[in-house]
Description:
Number of helices: 16
CATH architecture: Orthogonal Bundle
Order of helices and strands: HHHHHHHHHHHHHEEHHH
Distance between the termini: 48 Å
Helix content: 55-70%
Shape: globular
Number of domains: 1
Structural class: mainly alpha
Oligomer: single chain
CATH class: Mainly Alpha
CATH topology: P1 Nuclease
Amino acid sequence: MQSESINAWGFYAHQKINYYAIFALPPEMIVFYKYHIGYISSHAVDPDKRRYLVKDEPTRHYIDLDEYGDSLKFNMPLFWNQALQKYSEDSLKKHGIVPWHVYLMKVRLTEAFKDRDVDKIIKLSADIGHYIADAHVPLHTTKNYNGQFTNQVGIHGLWESRIPEIYGEQYSPWVGSAQYLEHPQKEIWDAVYSSHRCLKQVFEYEKEASKIVSEDRKFSFEERNASTVRVFSKEFSEVYNSKLQGQVEDRFLKAIKLLSCFWLTAWVDAGQPDLNSLLNQNNILEEQIVVKTKSEIIHDCNEHYR
């Protein structure tokens, strides 16, 4: 069972994933989503904030696949009701439910589109982005989520936060156009399995990097919010990232692409409602950041698709 203190990707990457996923949407969706880009990106971290307030929230962020044995890919039920027939609900929640929860969020988002409920659309769009991003973190698929069983404590933050923090601005976030998912539940499970396959390199390369960079150079201190904090040094992070050969960036970009596909799929399954007609509604979410007028956004989107 993963600790509530472990937050996938860190705030920076979660917000970037939600932000860039918007630009993979088709013209019929991008105007609406870009209008709400401030809310959808800034609130990408809301599920992590709820981990300390909502009892069942932590289990939605991970799944410990190694608790189910080597043959799980052939035996694991794709749908929640099927899983309940094979395992107890307590057992499922103990080991994490992220792929099942992503599908539940997709169903809820589809209903929000059908109801033309702007508040729910943008809130659910932000939330599902968080869980899809979590599913792309290898360390969210194992009970050894922070290297606590292999003398590698801190590897979670190193992989998901420190590496993106240092190198994230170098990533090219353009992932192509979103595509409709015929079997969205299979797609999120495939993402989880793909993350899990990365674990061998995640752990092995950290050990190799630790042999290259001595312990006294492995960590450094930086100023954060008027406090001095201990972090993995840039020297060590560079060695580790180099050995990973773009693994973190690849998972980051795949999360962006799959998120845009889930948004598109929910919208199509709802009957493709006219989202532009919803832009003039006075929704109750006061925190959203709109820095451009509707006409300016439409112009930008038209230029994007030239």
